[in-house]
Amino acid sequence: MNSLTELERKIIRELQKELAITATPYARIAAQLAISESDLLARIKNMQESGVIRKIGAVLRHRLVGYSANALCVWQVPEDRVVTTGEMFAALPVVTHCYERVTHAAWPYNLYTMVHATTRDECQHHIASMHRMSRIDDYQIFYSTQELKKISMRYFE
């Protein structure tokens, strides 16, 4: 892989910061870097296609927007149903994370979902609905007791 240019390093530094809440957050970054928005977007796309950037995502501080209850629900899903069940769960607006994990003899759960709601009862209601939809009977629920600081790796600081 080729090494990054100084401009690409600057772009990565900017993308690590919080995006402005505006209709055109990339235009602001482009202006700071003294390039056009279309040039910035093309460079980001190239870095994604080359694997330099894997994803650009948001971190929702769910407690600040009123979601004070969240539950990790682990499901034991038959292998032939993991993909369809995962897609069904991931499409639900209350599910913020949905992913498959490797099982072990002492831990048979292979599908993990994170459910956010305003109360634990509401979380339980959503999970019960997921249970009815999927007909997956073997699952466990783990409620968060505190929110830990969410940070991502920082490069080229």
CATH architecture of the largest domain: 2-Layer Sandwich
Uncertain spans, ≥5 residues at pLDDT below 50? none
* Average residue pLDDT: 90
Q: Based on CA inertia axes, which overall geometry fits?
A: elongated
Helix-strand string: HHHEHEEHE
State the major sheet.
Answer: 4 strands, antiparallel
Q: Which topology of the largest domain does CATH recognise?
A: Alpha-Beta Plaits
How many helix segments? Answer: 5
CATH class categorisation of the largest domain? Alpha Beta
What is the multimeric organization of the chains shown? single chain
Distance between the termini: 21 Å
Comma- or semicolon-separated keywords:
single chain; 157 residues; 2 domains
Characterise this structure.
With 157 residues, the protein is of the alpha+beta class. It folds into 2 domains: 6-49, no CATH class; 62-143, 2-Layer Sandwich (Alpha-Beta Plaits). It is built from 5 helices and 4 strands. The protein has helices at residues 6-15, 25-33, 37-49, 82-90, 120-134; strands at residues 69-75, 95-100, 111-117, 139-143. A 4-stranded antiparallel β-sheet has the order 2-3-1-4. The mean pLDDT is 90.
Topology, pairings included?
Blueprint (H helix, E strand, L loop, with lengths): L5 H10 L9 H9 L3 H13 L19 E7 L6 H9 L4 E6 L10 E7 L2 H15 L4 E5 L14
Antiparallel strand pairs: 1-3, 1-4, 2-3
Helix pairs in contact: 2-3
